[in-house]
Design brief:
single chain, mainly alpha, 80% helix, DUF47, Phosphate transport regulator, PhoU-like_sf, Put_Phosphate_transp_reg
Amino acid sequence: MDIKSTTPFAGLFRTSPFKPVQQHMRLVFSCICYIPPLLDALYRKDYEQVKEFADEIIKLESEADEIKQAFRLTMPNTLLLPVDRKDLLNLISDQDSIADLAEDIAKVLLYRDMEVPDPLKGVLDELLEGTMEISVAAKDLIEQLDELLQVGFRGREQEKVSQMISGVRRSEHNIDTIIHRIKRTLFEHEQRLDPISVIFWYQLIDLLGGISDQAENVADRLLLFLSK
């Protein structure tokens, strides 16, 4: 899943100030794409494959981190931007937080052999599906930045992006209800589970839920762009 650009990083600013942000988001999304196979391997108790997928997520997160650092260091102060420079820096930080959460999930499963409790499986699948959907939506929003730039953040493209932002917010709300149900399910069965594993499952659920929170933050950041 190598998506590195052959274009010199600083050169990306000459084509569009948003190119590095989009390049970063594609790597972040690649991290998220490894979470379903990671959990599938956990379902099957294939810990060798869990390690393999966890290592991939950690590697991709590191590559995303390098892009974020390069973006901060090479973004020209004098570049005439259609949006506030600080907002653009905050946007890439919000994106990076998504990759950080994927890495945290990978590390929990890398350092501890866990089993998926049977009562959690159905609702965990729902949470995973919702997490993937909102991650795709956040990535699609970032891919719209070039079109927004071309029309000056106005017109039909603005309306289209506004509707996409509303969709991300609805998805985040739906995921909140799933998280409530999965935590309630865990609580109802926790006395029959290993207490230490229960603690880690609460942590994993919060990390997965954090991805949708950060995806909503990305959407809110774009809403800020549209409102200025």
